[in-house]
Amino acid sequence: MCRWAAYRGEPLYLEELVSSPAHSLIEQSHCATRAKTATNGDGFGVAWYGERPEPGLYRDILPAWSDCNLRSIARQVRSPLFLAHVRAATGGGTRRDNCHPFVHGVWSFMHNGQIADFEHLRRPLETMLDNDLYNSRTGSTDSELLFLLALQFGLERDPLGAMAETIAFVERLAAHLERRVLVRFTAAFSDGRQLYAVRYATDFAAPTLYAAPMGETGGYCLVSEPLNDEVEAWVEIPDGSAVVLGENGVDVRIFSPAGRPAGGMEAKLALVR
């Protein structure tokens, strides 16, 4: 399983999450404590928002602990909103275009989790994308495909609704094709204004998610596992929850994809056997 960290608030140096804390994201890349795999050495990435609407993006296939450029960039770049990720591949090769975060226009997305039997669902899921979104797919992971499907289902209009619709559709497709129905999904995504996160799993065993305020910045960070030993500062976000970090602070909501309409896509299920 991967590890990730995200922040929204007053501008903060990336190193405050990526490299400086005792259990920073770089430390978690080779010594994660709340994941099935302690090592997350299949690449890394950072997406950050600055003066332009689109996020900056830096990704590589090196383990995060061995890339000196990452430490230098994290020390110099300040941002009011950024996403950082270290990868433990569960599918897709170790390639730069399979490293998180993924970016499309103003949107950025990163994920920790999996789709069961993805190799049997990949082709019919890709057929749901319009030409522009299909052509923007550069990698081979389930994570990137989930992101593009959410864009297809209206991420720009209703971020949490589109993400719920995406997961519900994957579950219904798996059932329709008589494959294992299982989505484990702990993800963060942003349009540069709001930061969203979701923790959900079909089997109620979603990868972990924690939240904590960041000192005097007025901001909050969301992480796969705490960045330090200050246990009381970190709140675990329950399975089946969505988090919205915006100008009004933190909003935690119930997240339940089951039973949501599929935006007219349900009829196409009969075409993908």
Automatic annotation (TrEMBL):
Residues in coiled coil: none
Keywords: Glutamine amidotransferase, Hydrolase, Transferase
Top-rank EC class of the record's enzyme: hydrolase
Protein name: Glutamine amidotransferase
GO MF terms held by the record: hydrolase activity; transferase activity
EC number: 3.5.1.118
Family matches, as SUPFAM superfamilies: N-terminal nucleophile aminohydrolases (Ntn hydrolases)
Keyword match rRNA processing: no
Pfam families in UniProt: GATase_4
Protein's organism: Shinella fusca
Residues annotated as domain Glutamine amidotransferase type-2: 2-248
